[in-house]
Specification:
This protein has about 200 residues and is of the alpha/beta class. It has a single domain, classed as HUPs (Rossmann fold), CATH 3.40.50.620. Helix content is about 45%, strand content about 10%. It is built from 7 helices and 5 strands; from the N terminus they run αβαβαβααβαβα. Strands 3-2-1-4-5 form a 5-stranded parallel sheet, sandwiched between helices. Helix 2 crosses helix 7, helix 4 packs antiparallel against helix 5 and helix 5 runs parallel beside helix 6. The longest helix is centred in the middle third of the chain and has 20 residues. The chain is globular and about 50 Å long. The relative contact order is 0.20. The model has no long low-confidence stretch (mean pLDDT about 95). Bound molecules: iron/sulfur cluster.
């Protein structure tokens, strides 16, 4: 089956927005400040954004707090007009999900379930607070499976009756731009994805 081009699908949605109407409300799930940087730069002109930091996959409360604080700092210093929701750290849902999948290599089924865990929470929040769309910054990472992220997002969006905004943020030099912005704002760039199982790998 042909792969869908989620980057172009996002472009088409943006091109179709009514510029004379209020911007649609978007809940953007964020994994860390570096990944959010380009996504926010790209999306902010078109959407009324709330960023949603919910990452029970983090291996410690310290790492969670560090990434959340860096996200707050970036939003402030970049003077972005977005709201921020930081959920409390609770790793139990992640470890419940990962039971039996501890030895699955990064990029496998544990990661797909990890995307699902975070996207479900984002979709529920988006539904409960009347957002037009929800999506995630996860597709900016060259190490993450954008096809799966979008398939899972669409499935969850159908379940919770809130539109999933397609994305492949690494395209259009998005990943490269996120590195530039990370340098510009001196953002903390962690060298692992987030969970304890990813700690032996080189790059998130
Ligand atoms: S490697 Fe990353 S995406 Fe995969 S389970 Fe761990 S934190 Fe989640």
């Amino acid at each position: 089956m042909n792969k869908r081009n989620y980057s172009k699908e996002l472009e088409a949605i943006i091109a179709g927005l009514d510029k004379s109407a209020p911007k649609p409300k978007l809940l953007l799930h964020v994994c860390c400040a570096p990944c959010s940087s380009y996504c926010l730069e790209y999306l902010a002109p078109h959407f009324d954004i709330t960023v949603f930091f919910y990452n029970p996959n983090m291996d410690s409360a310290e790492e969670y707090a560090k990434r959340a604080a860096e996200l707050r700092r970036f939003v402030k210093e970049a003077d972005l007009s977005v709201d921020i929701v930081i959920r409390e750290y609770d790793s139990k849902p992640f470890y419940d999900m990962a039971r039996g999948l501890e030895n699955v290599p990064e990029g496998g089924v544990r990661c797909f379930k990890c995307y699902e865990l975070r996207l479900k929470e984002a979709a529920k929040f988006a539904r409960d607070y009347g957002f037009d769309y929800f999506t995630t910054t996860l597709s900016i990472s060259p190490l993450k499976n954008s096809q799966k992220i979008n398939e899972i997002g669409e499935m969850i969006g159908r379940f919770y009756h809130v539109d999933h905004l397609p994305s492949d943020f690494k395209k259009k030099d998005g990943y490269k731009r996120s590195i530039e912005l990370s340098h510009e704002y001196n953002l903390y760039r962690q060298n692992y994805c987030g969970c304890v199982y990813s700690k032996s790998n080189e790059l998130a």
